[in-house]
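Why DinB family protein? Reviewers of the renewal asked for a concrete example.
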Amino acid sequence: MQTAPFLAALEAAVADLRATAQTDFAKLDVALLNQRPAPASWSILECLEHLNRYSRYYNAAFAKALGRPAAATSAEVAYTWLGRKSVDMMRPTNAKKSSTLKHLNPLGSRLGLEVLTEFDQHQARLLELLAQARHTDLNRKAMPVEFFRLLKLRLGEALEFVVVHQQRHLQQAQRVQAGLRVELAC
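Here is what the prediction returned.
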């Protein structure tokens, strides 16, 4: 896909994520937001806190990468083997469960409404970074992977990885919410 439509699709996805979190979760009581469907499963707030932990790293890394000069191109966004594999693993359509690293796993955390506020702030910042990305080469290797900094992704594939990862966990949070509705209706 060409750079401009690629970034436009990511921007639309992030705007949808932001709107979904605001409309679906902001109206819920903090007790419901912390309710888990099972002891080892994440609550809505734990799903969002997991994304916040990723965003703390990736938004800063994107800003750093975008701060380095690289002429924008209208070329196709290219993928390395690692980039394609990473993006495909995180797609919401991939039903295979992935385990997360301990420092990114919020299970058992005491969480409040500030998680929703932080999530919204990260999404607003990601939209700014996506707008900035229009002026750079998305095919350069610029992004160390959070869990193993020696591995690097191209800027475009890292942006897509973050967005599909967020879509995956927001859908997980929506499934948790749907389960809460069932319990509340009984």
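Strands lie at 141-145, 148-154. This is the kind of structural detail the renewal will allow us to pursue systematically.
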